[in-house]
Amino acid sequence: MDKNVCKLFVDTDKVFNQGNIKEDAFNNSDVYKKFCPKGGCSSNYDRLGALCGYLLAELPKLNNNPKGSEDNANQNYEFIFMWLADKFLKISRNVSVSLNDYYEKFIVSNGGSFNCWDTLDNKEHFKDSNLSIMSLFYQLFMNICSAIMKNEISNFELKKFKDTDYDYYQIYDLISTQVSNCDPYVQLLINFKKTYDDYRELAITKIPEDEHDNIYSLACSPINSNDDQPELLFG
Q: What is the pLDDT of residue 223?
């Protein structure tokens, strides 16, 4: 995971106050406003859709995979779905609905639309993913970003690592208990685990040996999918 991808989402989240986008912060940014629908962004959902378009435009510039590759696009869309779930859930605490159900009920039914929504059809099955679970994935993503951005191996701090590591373990454990029967979720979790494990292994080399027992006790076990249908839609 590129640190600049993390920075993109962290910086974009700064214009939010929970689920509400700060109008002044949004309006002062020409790079956000150019993704508004015709007539401008007159509502919170208009601004949310514009930010979605902004993220989709910026992500391909930061991904390390070859330009235009399927892995490149797929990973970008997964980040967007997690981000949208986090924002939808902060606006309306309806944890049981899918992203698509939320979009249809709260946005389309009120005459709105996101220009980015059709673009996301390349990973359309994620539109049926659960808001609550995908929001947890976004928390895990932000936790990993915090480790990568705020506690670089070259300037390692043990206290920061312990705090981040414990939070990661808690979120990972919560997700893993809910997703083992759905392969798309499992694959997301596997990808995040690999990213964090790579960071964690380097971090442990900076930790005194007398601290290793405490650190290793929080190691997350591998997750195995109970689903042999990799294209299974979300239930």
A: 65
Cβ(91)–Cβ(199) below 8 Å: no
Q: Per-10-residue mean pLDDT for the chain, 235 residues long?
A: 91 94 94 92 95 94 63 77 96 86 92 88 88 96 94 87 91 90 90 92 82 59 56 46
User: Domain residues of the chain, as ranges?
Assistant: 3-87+99-130, 133-216
- Angle CA 134–6–193, to nearest 5: 55
HSE toward the beta carbon, residue 8, CA cutoff 13 A: 24
